[in-house]
Amino acid sequence: MKNIYSTIAMVAFAAILCGSCTQKNKPLFDMPLGVQSYTYRASYENNTAAVLDTIKALGITEMEGPNPKNTKPGSV
To answer: Which superkingdom (predicted)?
Structure first.
């Protein structure tokens, strides 16, 4: 039982200490989110434009990987 209380105390202390080290009023990650085109490989054959619209609707603005088959940048 004594070990449980000491563990809880150490975790609480670490949380307080870690909380004082974080940046105040700043996001933890400030780069744009992205995906790899390979993630959606099975869906491209059905409707490439709809897949890209869905990705855009999710708020994702960066994409890594080759263009889907038979498309050129800016064509969809």
So the answer is: Bacteria
